[in-house]
Amino acid sequence: MTRHFLRDDDLTPAEQAEVLDLAAAMKKDRFGYRPFEGPQTVAVLFDKPSARTRVSFHTGIGELGGLPLIVDNVSVLMGRGEPPADLARVLDRQVAAIVWRTTGQELIDEMAAHSRVPVVNALTDEFHPCQILADLQTVQERLGRTAGITFTYVGDGANNMAHSYLLGGATAGMHVRIAAPAGYQPDAVILDQAAAIAAKTGGSVVALTDPVAAAQGAHVIATDTWVSMGQDGKEERVTALMPYQVNSELLEHAAPDAVVLHCLPAYRGYEITAEVLDGPRSVVWDQAENRLHAQKALLHWLVSRT
Ligand code: CP
Ligand code: NVA
């Protein structure tokens, strides 16, 4: 059966742990794994801008012995009204895996439903699961564990990062707290799904409106841009979300050794202050590097099971 990674809960808790263990091993032996020797090609398609995802997949596929086919403007491939299902059936006869950053989750679901090779979500409007693998790897490195830690995300609780933290964090057995104002709260269905996972892993999930209550004793404080790609209404969003800025005052409520995550790009002075982003608690550059190791492990794991 072809394994895809379209949302965080496509990996069971045991499988997620396996991928993260592999990521740690591959980070130690960076050029020692070459499953795409041939070279086999991996298609990496972008419908939205990207720095970290583009660089880490390009670099990682090369390090795995493969050939990255990076397509930055998917209209080059799909600009004539062809459905994702047809592109899947063209690509899967030639490439080892398909990685896609796009808009609606239904597009990547359709691609995966028709692909005999693994399809990987490199960010949709709904989820950003590759980022969460890198974040979990970073937390594991810094805190020595993921299960049982309190992970607080403050900001836009309705975006792809918040939803992926809920599912991926619950899968890892973390206590995930989302702090967001009314109108920016997580999707209730995803919150329920995450709660069901957490009930099995010993974690928990909760959506709050008070950022200080959410930060209390947290081991990790995470945030993300207040205006995701494709969204408008910046002024209104900034007004609603300003009380949810990650700054030194908020950090005072977290655990003394708490670390700060941001998937980047960051907007200093909005969702996070420069003092915090560029300060000693911030682990964002390790986090960005871990995209490389986590995605190499994911690709290796997926193709070896397909
Ligand atoms: N964090 C992240 O996905 O960065 P890019 O949008 O630059 O790929
Ligand atoms: N929520 C952000 C994440 C960027 C990596 C966005 O979708 O733009």
UniProtKB/TrEMBL annotation:
Record's keyword terms, sorted: Cytoplasm, Transferase
Domain annotation Aspartate/ornithine carbamoyltransferase carbamoyl-P binding: ranges: 3-141
Record-linked InterPro entries: Asp/Orn_carbamoyltranf_P-bd, Asp/Orn_carbamoylTrfase, Asp/Orn_carbamoylTrfase_sf, Asp_carbamoyltransf_Asp/Orn-bd, Orn/put_carbamltrans, OTCase_ArgI
SUPFAM superfamilies: Aspartate/ornithine carbamoyltransferase
Pfam families in the cross-refs: OTCace, OTCace_N
Major site of localization recorded for this protein: cytoplasm
EC number: 2.1.3.3
Transferase as UniProt keyword: yes
Residues given in the record as carbamoyl phosphate binding sites: R101, H128, P129, C130, Q131, C263, L264, R291
Catalyses which reaction(s): carbamoyl phosphate + L-ornithine = L-citrulline + phosphate + H(+)
Lineage: superkingdom: Bacteria
Residues where L-ornithine binds: N160, D224, S228, M229
Subcellular location: Cytoplasm
Domain Aspartate/ornithine carbamoyltransferase Asp/Orn-binding: 148-302
Protein family (similarity comment): Belongs to the aspartate/ornithine carbamoyltransferase superfamily. OTCase family.
UniProt-recorded name of the protein: Ornithine carbamoyltransferase
Source organism (scientific name): Nonomuraea rubra
